[in-house]
Design goal:
Bound molecules: adenosine-5'-triphosphate, magnesium ion
Distance between the termini of chain B: 24 Å
Largest sheet of chain A: none
Low-confidence stretches of chain B: 246-250
Structural class of chain B: alpha/beta
Number of helices of chain B: 10
Low-confidence stretches of chain A: none
Strand content of chain A: under 5%
Oligomer: heterodimer
CATH topology of the largest domain in chain B: Rossmann fold
Largest sheet of chain B: 6 strands, mixed
Number of strands of chain A: 0
Number of strands of chain B: 10
Shape of chain A: globular
CATH superfamily of the largest domain in chain B: P-loop containing nucleotide triphosphate hydrolases
Order of helices and strands of chain A: HHHHHHHHHHH
Chain lengths: ~270, ~250
């Protein structure tokens, strides 16, 4: 193991590999929720299709695309926030913070964990969606790359915000940290178009990179060509969100050092 | 004389209106073991956390290995380590896994060998494949010390490393610390509420009370200056004494 490139990042990632390979229940948890969601929405899709005119109408299969893509964002965000919470729960946070690990290395390690979660769950979900509901994610062709990339980045940014919240407000914020992606879900047009939202909420929705990805997904499924523009916008917004999350994280770390929050959150 | 490993100047920490550390200055020599003593709330842990960069100083300066902690934190942390009774390694991993992770976090070369050698040194080789969370307090302390010596630190901070251990284990742990220190020449700052611990392990002690440095010297010097037979006596005098701050400050 001598001369590992990026040893600190490898160390953070290795820890989660150990954790997930040691504990079958954790590995199970990784699949349980997304599979659950897929089944509920899949059967709903089938029901709605049968109740309607018959023959899969487009708006209904949108739901399945929404489930799959939403999971990318959710896993990425959760990978980042749970990695951090794991250190809080196991009273290991101080050990990590007094190790010679730079903040960007810590964040990069957490983001890699998020990426791994996506790499593991999404193919399985996609396969299930195909087998159970004949939904083929590869119909998106190469668009899949910007879809996934954008959602991954936004998930990371949210995970970082969630961690900043826990550091700033302690245990009280842990529940919120878990729920953060779901707090945004109603506004980011996962299962319906932006126009469905009341007028005053639409600007909020359009400020989220994920909204543009879900819109682009529906365009792609409808055979519409206006896909690239939205994805470009999503990428720009993502850079802004990621920068914002980085600044928030840095600011919160400074506050935490001033108020002694690192030790509080670590030993409470 | 070798340059000091650590130089602390006029260190102050305010948490809002409350002053937890109040104008502390001292130096730590190479290979020296310094005990940080004082009643609950004296500011010992806050002091340590500042030396680790976990808590920022309100005013004053900390130089470690001749470098500014504020500017070169990562570089300094590479040559330092820390263990406390109030932190633990992730309980859900094996001992060997935890130590391997930290060997990577410290950027050590040949992680496996270093982990193996350090485990041998601390007599925990047979715990390697045990779940960290299932260890007894004494075993966990030895594993924590393993982590703390993994990068062969030049400066080691130990915050109550023997808290919640039985007297037999306390004796073993402090002997282990003393021996390892003799071999490695590590400089150590050590807090404990166990005065025997302190007398056995430390070359020099600092007594703190309400954030201030009350007395500094070898255990013998400190005892003599309070006309006390034991550090325990000194401790009680300091903890209960109202006007000590006037009488006691050097
Ligand atoms: N993050 C914080 N915010 C506010 N006050 C704090 C914080 N950390 C410590 N304090 C206060 O600073 C004082 C010193 O605390 P510290 O933990 O340094 O004491 P200590 O000497 O380590 O005590 P003990 O022997 O009980 O471990 C205490 O009064 C404590 O309440
Ligand atoms: Mg303390």
């Amino acid at each position: 193991m001598s001369g590992t490139p990026f040893p600190a990042i490898s160390g953070i990632v290795l820890r989660y590999l150990y954790l997930y390979t040691r504990n079958g229940l954790r590995a199970f948890e990784l699949f349980f929720w997304p599979l659950n969601t897929l089944l509920v929405w899949g059967f709903l899709t089938r029901y709605l299709t049968q109740a309607g005119e018959g023959g899969a109408s487009l708006p209904v299969t949108f739901l399945l695309g929404g489930v799959l893509l939403w999971d990318v964002q959710f896993r990425a965000s959760q990978g980042v926030s749970v990695s951090f919470l794991e250190d809080v729960w196991t009273r290991n946070l101080l050990n990590v913070f007094v190790a010679p690990v730079r903040t960007w290395e810590l964040v990069a390690g957490f983001c890699t964990v998020g990426l791994l979660r996506v790499i593991i769950t999404v193919p399985i979900l996609s396969l299930m969606a195909f087998l159970a509901f004949r939904f083929n994610i590869f119909d998106f062709n190469l668009w899949l790359i910007p879809f996934f990339g954008n959602l991954l980045i936004f998930g990371w940014a949210m995970g970082m915000m969630a961690n900043a919240m826990v550091l700033r407000w302690g245990q009280a914020a842990e529940g919120l940290s878990w729920a953060l992606p779901f707090l945004l879900q109603p506004f980011t047009a996962v299962y319906y178009t932006v126009e469905t939202l009341p007028g005053f909420l639409q600007p909020v929705s359009l400020a989220l990179p994920s909204t543009h990805v879900f819109e682009a997904m529906r365009h792609a499924m409808a055979g519409d060509v206006r896909i690239g523009q939205g994805l470009f916008l999503a990428f720009g917004l993502n850079l802004a969100w990621l920068t914002g999350a980085g600044l928030v994280m840095n600011r919160v770390l400074a506050i935490a050092r001033d108020k002694g929050l690192l030790t509080k959150v670590a030993t409470q | 004389m070798l340059p000091p490993v650590l130089t602390v100047r006029d260190l102050v920490k305010d948490f809002g209106d409350f002053r937890a550390v109040d104008g502390i200055s001292f130096e730590l020599g190479q290979g020296e073991i310094l005990g940080l003593l004082g009643p609950n709330g004296a500011g010992k842990t806050t002091m340590m956390n500042m030396l680790l960069g976990l808590v920022s100083a309100t005013t004053g300066s900390i130089r470690i290995f001749g470098k500014s902690l504020e500017k070169d934190r990562i570089e300094i942390l590479r040559r330092m380590n820390f263990s406390s009774a109030y932190t633990s390694l992730p309980g859900n991993l094996l001992v060997r896994q935890n130590l391997t992770v930290f060997a990577l976090l410290y950027g050590l070369k040949d992680c496996r060998r270093r982990v193996r050698e350090t485990m041998e040194r601390f007599g925990v080789t047979e715990l390697a494949e045990r779940t960290t969370g299932h260890l007894s307090a004494g075993e966990a302390t030895r594993v924590n010390l393993c982590k703390a010596f993994l990068n062969r630190p030049e400066l080691l901070l130990l915050d109550e490393p023997t808290a919640s251990l039985d007297p037999d284990v306390v004796d073993k742990v402090r002997t282990l610390i003393r021996e390892t220190q003799r071999e490695s020449g590590t400089s150590i700052i050590y807090t404990s509420h166990n005065m025997q611990d302190i007398e056995f392990v430390c070359d020099r002690v600092i007594f703190m009370h309400r954030g201030r440095l009350i007395r500094m010297g070898t255990p013998a010097e400190v005892k003599a200056s309070f006309a006390s037979a034991s550090l325990e006596d000194v401790f009680i005098q300091i903890a209960r004494g109202g006007d000590l701050e006037v009488a006691g400050v050097q």
